[in-house]
């Protein structure tokens, strides 16, 4: 299905954009260019469909598609669909339900939805059997907090809640046209005395590559959410009630727009400051502004994941978010710029 | 008899396990005790029972936050609600709340790092702890394999707390490390209870092979003939994956997975839970797996690669047979395997060039007289130091007053002397580690009883085998008949699986 999806995107875009732009769409890159692309070529549904697909995996698939004569290489960054690929897209269109995907619509809530769903199922299943010693499958504190609150509301009627979600999932899984999807979905679930399969294991059991497994799982959760909306599945819907759908693009200052253009051309902060004869701090201000507008706009260019998590965890624990207080709590190990980036991240959690 | 009564009343056990009673009696008699007990014997009972019988709170210092939380949870489940864990995971609010109400707790678990907080120590002193427990006491020794700098300050802290009765506990400690614990805690006069760390229900086999391919073949044969919970230890992440796939291919009946530090967290939790639930037979892992995992029926521990020292090996084989049933440790060695741990040791220490450069930078910062704040991330990056290497260097820099609280101390001058001292120190530690490694190598190549060679340096009594002893003493795998696990791949329909997970109460009743 991943190959089908990639060819589908190529077909829509035609020869107008590079191979990399398709990668950016599928992994949900938060740049103005990519957002513009998905609107222009009507690919909004596939935005962020395979968030964990690595560059190497993607490149390998492209190479394979070229070798199998689905794609033709024009030059290094440009490839075009062959007649064989066009036939394939028509012939196989009923086989792969990529229309389940609602990429851009759900992009800000999907991760939270999936994590809450899995942890809630695990928690209710164990606690209804009075087993309190299970290890939560999500370490994310915000997810754990939400599930705790939700559990608290329902703890008088655990069985009722479980029967509710059981009925809702039965109706959802029965409505899928491919039985294998239902099996995969259930094999991923964790509950009492039963931990779900990891991606590596599912790939082995179903003889499907890992990125493909991830795509199918995400697709099923997209479908579950739309199914819950149209069929009034009240239990499933509680998982996303407080999550906001994608925020509208916010207003950007002129100066930040210029910085944005330079960043898009891969200038560093220092280079932009020099070029524009501005202080480094001013450019950093722009980046904070841009990150708020297009969260998480290039956040990982400026801060690595572990620092980001480290700072965010500290922020979550502090009574107020004064920068100096946060800096101190982190033993001055991080710059104000890093802390401000982490604050944006925190506000977007 | 009286103590047994207390045990049964408070914990519901009828008898003590080896060493517990002697340690507890000494603590109750007011003695400071240093004790080594094998893993899985129930170290925590040694302070929980006397703690409950004494007036005043019990302070427990323990290095692993997850274990700390587990113990507090366990105490609460047993009905002792007045237990609390103070560590870096508490929010500031929570911590304030705990400190304000310290006097209401009987068991206070702390990480060594949190004890660096003077305010907390002052408050602790006010509630007059009756018993001060140092868990994993080997962390205090720089010769130990898990040295934690923060442990060095415990000596001062014990004094500040009014020198309560002190109990230092560990599962692995050579006489050298024991002596170091005693030396570091100068204010405490210890009575020592050294119990054999030998695991009588384990049998040892070392198999020498020529190539990796031989190892793979051996492991496939083993997994096909012994369907038991198995852990295979590797020192390379990539190899865990390769061998896991190899096993999956060649042992179709086997449920196998790999586990290492780079596997995403959620996936790691799933694998761990599957292993605990007996959904997995075999796990290919690095040493990242095992911390805090308390599975009773691991039957077979295989070392595909050698760890860097005997203590790690003892700890890893100690995960087999916690239920006291006959279990096996198998070590596979190929000729080139000896070089891997050597490289690992080399990579623990910073290079001379890196050290010199780092010192020059610090000196420059000190000369600037201004705040002189250092940026650890920058330093690690510039001088190519790993996290481990930096922690090692930082510890010395702090000890020698070159840095305080991440700030360079402009009053320190004798840089070159300190650098020389540190370089020597590193050379000594490297030599020590290589010596340890040589000890382990000679264990691999021994032509004497492996049990005696392995455990004798750690204990005064002669280790004895409860079942078969080792390959030298005539044990071979074809004499082994473990209870075979019954689990296999579930072939139920998704509907049944879904019901099992969401309506487990229906499944149970019929
Ligand atoms: Zn022997």
UniProtKB/TrEMBL annotation, chain A:
One of its GO terms (biological process) is DNA repair. Pfam families: HTH_40, RQC. GO terms for molecular function: 3'-5' DNA helicase activity. Residues 255-343 form the Helicase Helix-turn-helix domain. Residues 6-93 form the RQC domain. This is Uncharacterized protein YpbB. It comes from Amphibacillus marinus.
UniProtKB/TrEMBL annotation, chain B:
GO terms for molecular function: 3'-5' DNA helicase activity; ATP binding; DNA binding; four-way junction helicase activity; hydrolase activity. GO terms for biological process: DNA recombination; DNA repair. Keywords: ATP-binding, DNA-binding, Helicase, Hydrolase, Nucleotide-binding. It comes from the Bacteria. Residues 24-191 form the Helicase ATP-binding domain. Residues 215-363 form the Helicase C-terminal domain. The keyword Lipid biosynthesis does not apply. It holds the Pfam family Helicase_C. This is ATP-dependent DNA helicase RecQ. It comes from Amphibacillus marinus.
């Amino acid at each position: 299905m991943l190959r089908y999806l990639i060819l589908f995107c190529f077909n829509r875009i035609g020869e107008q954009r590079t191979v990399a732009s398709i990668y950016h769409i599928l992994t949900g890159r938060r740049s103005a260019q990519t957002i513009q692309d998905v609107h222009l070529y009507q690919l909004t549904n596939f935005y962020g469909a395979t968030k964990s697909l690595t560059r190497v995996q993607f490149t390998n698939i492209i190479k394979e598609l070229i070798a199998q004569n689905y794609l033709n290489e024009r030059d290094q960054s440009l490839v075009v669909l062959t007649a064989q690929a066009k036939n394939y897209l028509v012939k196989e269109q009923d086989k792969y339900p990529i229309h389940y995907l609602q990429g851009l619509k759900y992009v800000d809530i999907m991760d939270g939805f999936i994590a809450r769903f899995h942890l809630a199922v695990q928690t209710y299943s164990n606690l209804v059997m009075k087993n309190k010693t299970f290890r939560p499958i999500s370490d994310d504190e915000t997810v754990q907090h939400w599930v705790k609150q939700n559990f608290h509301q329902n703890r008088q009627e655990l069985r009722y809640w479980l029967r509710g979600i059981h009925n809702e999932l039965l109706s959802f899984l029965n409505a899928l046209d491919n039985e294998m999807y239902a099996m995969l979905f259930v094999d991923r679930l964790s509950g009492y005395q039963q931990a779900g399969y990891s991606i590596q294991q599912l790939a082995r059991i179903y003889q499907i590559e890992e990125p493909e497994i991830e795509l199918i799982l995400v697709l099923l959760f997209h479908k579950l959410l739309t199914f819950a909306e149209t069929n009034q599945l009240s239990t499933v819907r509680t998982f996303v009630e407080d999550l906001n759908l994608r925020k509208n693009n916010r207003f950007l200052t002129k100066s930040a727009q210029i910085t944005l253009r330079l960043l898009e051309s891969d200038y560093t902060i220092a280079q932009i400051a020099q070029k524009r004869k501005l202080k480094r701090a001013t450019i950093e201000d722009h980046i904070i502004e841009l990150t708020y507008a297009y969260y998480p706009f290039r956040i990982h260019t400026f801060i690595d994941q572990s620092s980001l998590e480290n700072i965010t965890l500290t922020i979550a624990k502090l009574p107020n978010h004064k920068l100096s207080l946060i800096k101190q709590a982190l033993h001055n190990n991080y710059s104000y710029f890093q802390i401000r980036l982490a604050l944006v991240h925190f506000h977007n959690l | 008899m009286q103590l047994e009564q207390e045990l049964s009343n408070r914990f519901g056990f009828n008898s003590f396990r080896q060493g517990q009673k002697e340690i507890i009696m000494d603590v109750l008699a007011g003695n400071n005790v240093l004790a080594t007990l094998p893993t899985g014997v129930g170290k925590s009972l040694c302070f929980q029972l006397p703690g409950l019988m004494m007036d005043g709170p019990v302070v427990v210092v323990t290095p692993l936050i997850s274990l700390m939380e587990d113990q507090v949870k366990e105490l609460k489940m047993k009905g002792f609600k007045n237990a609390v864990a103070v560590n870096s995971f508490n929010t500031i609010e929570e911590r304030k709340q705990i400190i304000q109400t310290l006097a209401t707790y009987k068991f206070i678990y702390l990480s060594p790092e949190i004890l660096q907080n003077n305010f907390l120590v002052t408050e602790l002193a006010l509630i007059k702890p009756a018993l001060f427990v140092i868990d994993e006491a080997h962390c205090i020794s720089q010769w130990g394999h898990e040295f934690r700098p923060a442990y060095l300050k415990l000596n001062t802290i014990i004094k500040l707390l009014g020198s309560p009765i002190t109990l230092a506990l560990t599962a692995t400690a050579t006489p050298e490390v024991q002596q170091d614990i005693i030396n570091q805690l100068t204010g405490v006069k210890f009575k020592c209870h050294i119990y054999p760390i030998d695991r009588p229900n384990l049998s040892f086999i070392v198999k020498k092979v020529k190539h990796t391919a031989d190892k793979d073949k051996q492991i496939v044969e083993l997994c096909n003939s012994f369907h038991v919970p198995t852990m295979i230890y590797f020192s390379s992440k990539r190899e865990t994956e390769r061998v896991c796939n190899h096993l999956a291919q060649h042992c179709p009946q086997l449920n196998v997975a790999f586990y290492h530090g780079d596997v995403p967290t959620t996936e790691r939790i799933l694998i761990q839970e599957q292993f605990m639930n007996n959904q997995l037979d075999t796990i290919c892992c690095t040493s990242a797996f095992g911390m805090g995992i308390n599975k009773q029926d691991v039957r077979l521990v295989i070392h595909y690669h050698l760890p860097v020292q005997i203590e790690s090996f003892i700890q890893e084989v100690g995960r087999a047979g916690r239920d006291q049933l006959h279990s096996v440790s198998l070590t596979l060695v190929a000729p080139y395997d000896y070089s891997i741990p050597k490289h690992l040791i080399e990579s623990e220490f910073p290079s001379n060039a890196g050290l010199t450069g780092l010192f020059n930078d610090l000196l420059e910062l000190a000369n600037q007289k201004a705040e002189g704040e250092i940026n650890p991330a920058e330093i690690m990056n510039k001088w190519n130091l790993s996290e481990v290497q930096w922690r090692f260097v930082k510890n010395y820099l702090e000890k020698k007053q070159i840095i305080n609280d991440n700030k360079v101390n402009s009053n320190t001058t004798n840089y070159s002397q300190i650098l020389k001292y540190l370089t020597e120190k590193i050379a000594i530690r490297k030599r020590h580690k290589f010596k340890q490694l040589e000890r382990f190598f000679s264990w691999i190549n021994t032509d004497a009883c492996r049990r005696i060679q392995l455990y004798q340096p750690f204990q005064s009594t002669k280790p004895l085998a409860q079942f078969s002893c080792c390959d030298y003493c005539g044990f071979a795998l074809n004499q082994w008949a473990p209870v075979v696990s019954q689990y296999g791949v579930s072939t139920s329909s998704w509907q049944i699986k879904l019901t099992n997970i969401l309506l487990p109460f229906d499944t149970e009743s019929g």
